[in-house]
What we know:
Blueprint (H helix, E strand, L loop, with lengths): L10 E2 L2 E2 L5 H18 L2 H15 L5 E3 L1 H7 L2 E6 L9 H14 L4 E6 L3 H13 L3 E6 H6 L1 H9 L3 E5 L6 H14 L4 E4 L9 H9 L1 H14 L6 E5 L4 H7 L9 E9 L10 H4 L1 E5 L2 E5 L24 H8 L3 E7 H15 L5 H9 L10 E6 L7 H7 L2
Parallel strand pairs: 4-14, 5-6, 5-8, 6-7, 9-10, 9-14, 10-13
Antiparallel strand pairs: 1-2, 3-4, 11-12
Helix pairs in contact: 2-4, 4-5, 4-9, 5-7, 9-11, 10-11, 14-15
Amino acid sequence: xxxFTVNEKGYYGEFGGAYVPEILHxxxxxxxxxxxDIMESDSFQQEFQALLRDYxxxxxxxxxxxxxxxxxxxxIYLKREDLNHTGAHKINNAIGQVLIARRMGKTRxxxxxxxxxxxxxxxxxxxxxxxxxxxxxxxxxxxxxxxNVKKMEMLGATVVPVTSGNMTLKDATNEAIRxxxxxxxxxxxxxxxxxxxxxxxxxVARLQSVxxxxxxxxxxxxxxxxxxDYLFACVGGGSNAAGTIYEYLDNENVKIVLAxxxxxxxxxxxxxxxIQLGKIGVLHGCKxxxxxxxxxxxxxxxxxxxxxxxxxxxxxxxxLAKQQRARVLxxxxxxxxxxxxxxxxxxxxxxxxxxxxxxxxxxxVEFSSSDIVVLTLSGRGDKDMDTYLKYMx
Length: 393
């Protein structure tokens, strides 16, 4: 275990833990005791790896972007999670968690979703495994991610629009937890990111670590070394970022750059730059950095990207930022949109708005000509077309 992995109590340094209502204590404790044994078993790994290969379409390509490489004067590879079945990295975690839930005897699945990609991924896996699925989604996100809502319904999931608070990801998570409290015996809550009570942050990071395992193998083939000089990823709750960096946490030769949602600017009052603006607190079952007022009330986050407007951050990323293992950059809406249109028009790849934040972060780092950079394209931009069309020239 290195200093950046979770300890036996579920903490990354001072961040993490399991802060849950008494009614969920047994659910969470059962999961804590079961998840590693299940994940490390031969039967789980055989089924999980077969589905990743034959159903998801892994390994996802590692693509050398000529135009980005020329523009930044180094080699920039894109890890193409946008090419997975369902169009994002979320499917890796959804398959793993539903397999775990099934082995634990759970018969019903619930999930929260912001941009809809995790909801679609969970609904997809539940259709595959014929399990009932309920997805909670903020009403604001239901409206701006309408095609994903229809996909989930077509897949057989029940989508519940949440009308409390800002009607976005935080509020959807609150409702999912309420549901879980009402049905603790038969229900597994598939959390989509590296947030929530232990063991969720570690479990999600381990399931997504397939990304960095593939990067090591693919770089060895392409560059005759298994590590890059830089890793870039966007970070909201932090699942694609955790998967991208997992195998490299203790390799000091690899610099980690995370892009969070600066919204209209970190001082504008319209931002989701949690690491820049957050203070330590407890939200959705873990101690982490949270955007909050002086008296501890949650500050409503804002981002043009539905998948990044969360007022907290995965405890692993809070710890990495505090230890200065990761450099975290706040990217504005305008910077992300500009980067998205640049990749679309010069490379023929329409990225998800979340991934566009990572692309924009490239402009804020000075590279040397020998540098090898890997940037994870966490998802494709189909779901964001309405937003992109509003900003088209």
